[in-house]
Write a structure and sequence with these properties.
Blueprint: E1 2-5, H1 11-19, E2 23-25, H2 34-40, E3 45-48, H3 56-61, E4 67-70, H4 80-85, E5 89-92, H5 98-113, H6 116-126, H7 131-137, E6 148-152, H8 156-167, E7 171-175, E8 181-187, E9 193-199, H9 203-209, E10 212-215, H10 227-231, E11 237-241, H11 250-259, E12 262-267, H12 278-281, E13 286-288, H13 297-315
Parallel strand pairs: 1-2, 1-3, 3-4, 4-5, 6-7, 6-10, 10-11, 11-12, 12-13
Antiparallel strand pairs: 8-9
Length: 316
Amino acid sequence: MKILANDGLSKSGIDALEKEGFEVLNTKVAQNQLENYINEHNIDALIVKSLTEVRDDLIDECPSLKLIAFAGVGMDTIDVDYAIEKGLHVINAPEASTISVAEMVFAHLFGMARFLHSANREMPLEGDSRFRELKKTYSNGTELRGKKLGIIGFGSIGQEVAKIAIGIGMEVIAMDENIDSESITLDFFNGQKINFNIEMSSKEELLKDADFITINVPDQDSYVIDTKEIEEMKDGVGIINTSRGGNLNEVALVNAIKDGKVQFAGLDVFESEPTPEIQLLMNPDLSLSPHIGAGTLEAEERVGIEIANQIIKLLK
């Protein structure tokens, strides 16, 4: 059987598949050429990430496909229900990148709290001529210890975010419409473990009390944070979105930053990916990254192995 890893797959994943007799084509085919390539090479399984879309028309025109895999968590670039209706297996690796995304939340959060996102822009340009002025400007940061972190969505990623927050002394306020409470375990390097039970709060309580808010839910039908939600937040709040761009109203965010309601925000995802709006890219109060929350070497290895094992089980 032939597998096209159109957006790449880790070496460990490829090795596992090849060991079981699969032929893996680890190449990048342009979206407009994908249909022809799949049919010409009689591809049985297609592995994609967020850069490749697998819509119903592609599924209809590629009868050789038996399986579609998303090498990560979200599958919004795949018409999942339609593919299943047509008899295809659709899989992903929901747990593999959890730690990486949670750490990205705090990469933005630590940087914003100490204005590194802005200082890193100005130091290369004016660090030699305005050093003392910049020092004064950026010496009014804030510590995270003792602050309240609001976590919207308490699935696997939200729980990992909570573990880091608790580890550095933050108070966790979590909300999730699907659960009432959740027990999480902090594992330490020396084998010690500590269990915490987190009771869910209402969205209203979270918005009112949190010093920082992070969005950790799948793609939603409407904004998770819009103008109304921002108005309910504390003045000077910080917002982090590593989930999906459509979960946060970017226009409302920019307006709130301009009005001083929101102090800063960290964005790893954007409504108009892969071409974020220029008003976001040029805003000095935004900490930005190009959708790389899951993009670590460790996560790639885990994703590759998890996807390979599922394919072997389903198609072997």
